[in-house]
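Archive maintenance. Older records in this collection stored only the sequence; we are now back-filling the structure field for every entry so that each record is complete. The fields below show one back-filled record exactly as it appears after the update. Entries are processed alphabetically, and Zn(2)-C6 fungal-type domain-containing protein is next in the queue.

ARCHIVE ENTRY
Title: Zn(2)-C6 fungal-type domain-containing protein
Organism field: Fusarium oxysporum NRRL 32931
Length field: 708
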Amino acid sequence: MPGFNHNMETESQQNETMTPPEQTQSRFLNSCNGCRARKVRCIKQRESDVSCINCRKRSEDCRFSRTKVRKARSAKGQSRRQTKNPDAADPVTPLSRAPSSPGARSQPDNLMASPSRRSIVGNSDAEAQFVPSGTETTYAANQMASTTPVDYPVIMANEQDVSISSLAYFSNSKLIALSKRIGTTQVADLLAKVEAAVKSTTRSPGGVSPYSNNLEKEARSVTLSQQCRLDYIQSYFDQVHPLYPFLDRASFENRARSSRVGDIGSVDPAWCALYHAVLGLGSLYHECGSFNAFSGTAWDIFRVSLAFFPRIVFGQINLVTVQAMAAMAIFSVTYEALPIEGVLISEAARIVSHFQITKAEACKTNQEFQRTFWVIYSLESEYCLNTGRSSIIPSHDISCPIPQTNLPFLSGFNWLQCKAKHAQMASDIYQRLFSVKARSSSQALRQREANRCLEELEAWRLSVPESFRPGLRLRSHRLGQPQAVYLAVQIHFSYYNVRIALARVCLLAWAQDSEEQTRYKILLTESARSITDLVHFIDLEPFVLPWVQYNMPQAALFVLFDFVIEHPCHEETRKNLLYMQIATSYFMRLQCVTGNTAFGTILAQFLQIATRFVECTCISSITQPEVSANPRGSELWQSRDSGIGTIDFEESLGFQGLQFPMHNGFEFQDMDFWLTESGVLSFLESSGDFGLPNPESEGPLGEPVGRR
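Back-filled structure field:
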């Protein structure tokens, strides 16, 4: 392998094979754009190669920028060992072999499995210590495109706050603590793969546009028989309408029979969009759905509605217009339209807010307006809760009454009122605990607000009928219809979603109170177990909401994994591992249905890591009793020294250096995560055998904690 020039700014000789004749005066940098952005060395196996080893390993385009004048500067740090086999799999880096010198700042290749792992210079002090110089920082910033919200991580939490999103659980500091405790960076590698998989689901595929400019072509492409249309409408009102009751069934069916929907030139655009959105939603229950974005028969039908979107936004606003936006927003929460979920839900919320449909005066005489508003508001509140952002519709400015809406399978239960109250509560909790303003509140105020929010959440739980009430065992045989079971799962998950967010906030608010810390850690773990208890009720079908089918079970798995690694010898660890096994089995089933390994194989490795770590730690504790000489015995919930993140360890993890969207919450106070760099816990299991399989993990877990 030829030698590599340490000066990244030195101009290379002209590469005739890559430079067009008209650019013979241009020169190319020695390092490709990807390696420069990641601040790693760019090495070719042969001078004649057109791509470097790093880009080839990641199957990325290897592009070299042209330059005319570059200021030379010396490179700092020692290069990490590069593999000679460009096709070899990325290894897991044991901490014992990680660089320890202050100059070794290069980010390991195995941490760059996804775009979310790109090193982006941030503003925090923790990130600043990894910037060699001001000149280098400025140079790196100039060589990269500015970070857009599309580049921001999805499942990574901000270092300076707690996100209301349960999925945004791990931060860089937490990853550092996890990796330091288990002895490898394997968790960071897995999260990089999960991040890439989630982004592929929630972001538009490259080169694919969901919007069509040819409206007539889209309408002609939908060739459905009259019987199919009737079946889809019937399925919509049987399956979807009870959960989102904003339409009047009789008036809709009458207009659908009398309208010439095939002649789109003479049909009201809002009505045509509403009609096709209803058809698309109903077709999901006839095997027309897909787990992939912008695909499937249901999506082909919905594209007609989407083609009318500009006309709806800039047209006259009336009841049908608002109902069309509500139906399109409901479709956007399915897998087929997930990349445009934010656009459609936000636009629906903007319309009802801009035209003051939130006011009682605007809709007091029309219950269809009232139901449509509360459906849109609930959708938007749910979206904000799961993505960690504030609502477009302020809850304190709503006076629209909630109409009586009974479920066909449970008379006397006003489901719309229950959903609306939860949406208002979630919006208020965000404003009081997770907003930017709330971060400046005193600790005493945070504690009071957190207690009030928990009381409000408990009051909402008690308002739910017992057969649907969270905290009680869900007995599907008593509910009867499958959609009643699905509704019960939604109610339970809505409750635990907020409960997890509040428990994490309380861990910060009572950072110095060990008893309160114990209380909220138990609350957090019990919520994760309750979610796992319900996964066998979830249908593995495309019509199931992604946040129900994937987000909540994954959040529960993260919480359980965190507790097991922190308390490997706790008396509850055996049970938590069993719950993790239940969640893993569910995700493997989901993978079989979707064909996406991120839904199964990748998440199953969290169980492998946890099982292996528990076995090694408990064996080490038994063979070295002096390590676990803790007089407090089984009082393992107590927080201990939380000092983490030494320079050497951060180097070995290859500090992520990510810029995160400022979601909301409080300043990070070291206690947001449970992991510490203390030794193993004192409680010893009588046996290290947990009755679970002992799978081989992808990489070494290093020495047991007690032997480091």
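Update note: The chain is about 50% helix and 0% strand. Strands lie at 27-28, 66-67, 406-407, 410-414.
Entry marked complete.
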